[in-house]
Structure formats: structure tokens, C-alpha cells
Write a structure and sequence with these properties.
Blueprint: E1 5-15, E2 18-29, E3 33-37, H1 44-51, E4 58-66, E5 69-70, H2 76-82, E6 84-87, E7 94-98, H3 99-109, H4 119-132, E8 143-144, H5 150-164, E9 168-172, H6 180-192, E10 199-204, E11 217-222, E12 225-230, H7 232-241, H8 243-256
Parallel strand pairs: 3-10, 3-11, 6-9, 9-10
Antiparallel strand pairs: 1-2, 1-4, 4-5, 7-8, 11-12
Helix pairs in contact: 5-6
Length: 257
């Protein structure tokens, strides 16, 4: 299978006539882990939601392409079948649908007719992945995220990712509210998929998860734009200096322009 490539070029998005992203460009390839960091309200979650086709976010300019295909023209389910995956900042609760049934339906939705996963194969895979993530097997039979703690919901998002094996995963603040042990489990799940057929975009406020999922590229986002990019050392520098350092550099660059 070819190495996946997600290309975001000069992307502009708006919500109710308010521009959120103002010309963002980014390319994520298989074998790469990218991290986007930035203060609240800068458009990080808006980017994640736009990539998966949330109807609230209107693309007003630019393009999103996955393996050369126009993502903007796809419905959310088509994006998922093409290999995009979003681990949400606030996972939804779905009453009446067990985690196991949800996952099996999601896997089969990505397969051609006649190639649906058997119940035995599915249960074997699910048991193996849940054991790897140190999850109680009983969670498989609970309604999706209903009554789950914040950490359990985030671990359940990683469970979905490992079962679905996407080509490009967008992880929106997957570390939010987690203690250090839970972060290590989440990181173990992400690291287990690393390879040429998998790329990841991690959206986070904090450097701590990047201690366990080592990014190849770090991008700092301010006011709907990526304003600074570098290697993992950029996240460490940001952790020491804070976002005021970035804003000061931007202000100085504008004065000199």
C-alpha cells in the first residue's frame, strides 16, 4: 500500500461568517508524527473538525487532499473510509450502542461487501487490543462512552484507532485531563502504529505527551495560522518560554517588515 499523504494548502475556514483559519498549509505523510501547539481559541480544534467534515465549518478557500483525492468534496463517512480518523477532544456518548458493536460496524463500513469481519476474528482482535491498552474487557459491552471517565473516553478513542488502523490520524488534545499513567498508555497505542502506512497529527497544549510520542515536526499555531515550525526541540523551547515568546517574535517580525 502506498504511503499516505495529507496535503492542506492555503486553507481558509469560517464559522458563521467569522474567519477561523486564514491560509494554513501543512503536509502530513506516512511515517511522520506532526504536533500542532497553540493557545486556546487559535483554531486547532477547528482544523481537526474541518478535516473530518463537520458541517459547522465552511471551507472558504484552499484545499485538503488525501492521496490526491479532494477531501472537501467527501462526506464524513467517505473521509473515514479513505483512511482519516479523528480522536475527539470531547468524545460523544451513544446510549444503546455498545463499544463492541460500534467498532465492528465501523470496521465493516470500510470493507467491501462479502469481506465483512467475522465475529470470531473481531472478538480476537478486540481482546488483543484491549489487553494491550490495559482496558477492562467489560468496557466492550458498555454503551459507547456512557458513564466513562475522561481518561476512559480517551483510551477508548485509542482503542478505536488501533482497531480501525487509519492512514492518517488526527488526535485532538488526546492528553487533556489525563494523569501520567494514562498518557503513557495513550502514547503506547499511537507508537504501536508508527510506520510508513500511518501518519499522525497531534493537537495539544502541552509538551508532556510529546515526551512519549516523539514528533518529527512541531508547529506553533496562532490566530489561525502556523507561525513557526521546527523539530521536537521547538516544543521543549515553547514549554520553557510560553506563548508570549511566540507573540513577541511575531510582533518584532511585523515591525521589521
Amino acid at each position: 500500500m502506498a504511503t499516505p499523504v495529507l496535503e492542506i494548502n492555503d486553507l481558509h475556514i469560517a464559522v458563521e461568517d467569522k474567519e477561523i483559519l486564514r491560509g494554513l498549509s501543512l503536509t502530513v505523510k506516512g511515517g511522520e508524527v506532526h504536533a500542532i501547539m497553540g493557545p486556546n481559541g487559535t483554531g486547532k480544534t477547528s482544523l481537526a473538525q474541518t478535516l473530518m467534515g463537520h458541517p459547522r465549518y465552511l471551507v472558504t478557500g484552499g484545499s485538503i487532499r488525501l492521496d490526491g483525492q479532494d477531501v472537501v468534496a467527501m462526506r464524513p463517512d467517505e473521509r473515514a473510509r479513505a483512511g482519516l480518523f479523528l480522536a475527539m477532544q470531547y468524545p460523544s456518548e451513544i446510549s444503546g450502542v455498545t463499544t463492541a458493536n460500534f467498532l465492528r460496524a465501523a470496521i465493516n463500513a470500510r470493507r467491501e461487501d462479502g469481506r465483512q469481519i467475522s465475529l470470531k476474528e473481531f472478538r480476537d482482535q478486540l481482546d488483543q487490543v484491549m489487553n494491550f491498552l490495559e482496558m477492562d474487557p467489560k468496557f466492550a459491552n458498555r454503551y459507547l462512552n456512557e458513564g466513562f471517565s475522561g481518561g476512559e473516553k480517551k483510551r477508548n478513542e485509542i482503542l478505536q484507532m488501533l482497531m480501525l488502523k487509519p492512514r492518517i490520524a488526527i488526535l485532538d488534545e488526546i492528553d487533556s485531563g489525563l494523569d501520567i499513567d494514562a498518557i503513557k498508555i495513550v502514547a503506547k497505542g499511537v507508537n504501536s502504529l508508527k510506520g510508513p502506512e500511518f501518519g499522525a497529527l497531534i493537537i495539544t497544549h502541552y509538551q508532556r505527551i510529546l515526551d512519549y510520542v516523539r514528533p518529527d515536526f512541531v508547529h506553533i499555531m496562532v490566530d489561525g495560522l502556523i507561525v513557526k515550525s521546527g523539530g521536537p526541540e521547538l516544543a521543549e523551547e515553547l514549554d520553557r518560554k510560553g506563548y508570549d515568546w511566540v507573540r513577541s517574535e511575531l510582533a518584532e517580525a511585523r515591525r521589521q517588515a
